[in-house]
Amino acid sequence: MSKQNANQTFTITFFTILLWLFSLNAYPVGLAEIEFLQGAGADTFTVTTGLPRECIDHVSPWTLQTTPGNGQTMRIYYLQGAGFCDVDPSIQLFEVKSNQHSDKVAQFKWLKDAGEDPTLVEIYDPDRLLTVDAGDVYHIKVWASYGGQPH
Question: CA nearest 78: which of 128, 127, 137?
Fold first, then answer.
């Protein structure tokens, strides 16, 4: 076998194995969104994602700032058909914190069970910062305001 044939054979084999390895991680990904809006009041809010994060490919952006009059959307790319993700739910934690009152914090988990619609669970909101509209479960709207006045 000539050196050129050996190089061609190696290159073809290498790329075949590489494509096969990439296909092992190619799970279908679903998309859901949470739009964060600023409610009444002067406070602005920082929204961050955290742990737990299970059966989630990624969230974009990972953090955002609310601004008066404009909604900011986080997109949740969750895994489907990834073996254990078929039986375990996709879970992502969100934290909403007032920029003017650092002790005012709310948290909730976004959850998507296989075959079920997404929902928000384990909502911790002692200061009633959040108002939720889940009319479209794949585009949930969350208003944040200090003082319990939504919008």
Answer: 137
- The answer on pLDDT for 79 being more than 70 is yes
**pLDDT, tens digit (0-9, with 9 covering 90-100), for 88-99:** 789 999 999 999
Residue 70 DSSP class: B
105-112: strand order across its sheet: 63-65, 45-54, 90-98, 105-112, 119-124
Please answer whether residues 54 and 37 qualify as being in contact, where contact means their C-beta atoms are separated by less than 8 angstroms: no
Q: What do you get for the CA distance between the two ends of the chain, in Å?
A: 75
- Among 31, 109, 96, 105, which residue's Cα sits nearest to residue 65? 96
CA distance 80 to 108: 22
As a whole number of angstroms, the distance between CA 1 and CA 75 comes to 53
**Quick one: DSSP state of residue 121?**
E
Q: φ and ψ at 39, to 5 degrees?
A: -85, -160
Phi/psi region, residue 116 (left: phi>0; alpha: psi -120 to 50; beta: rest), is beta
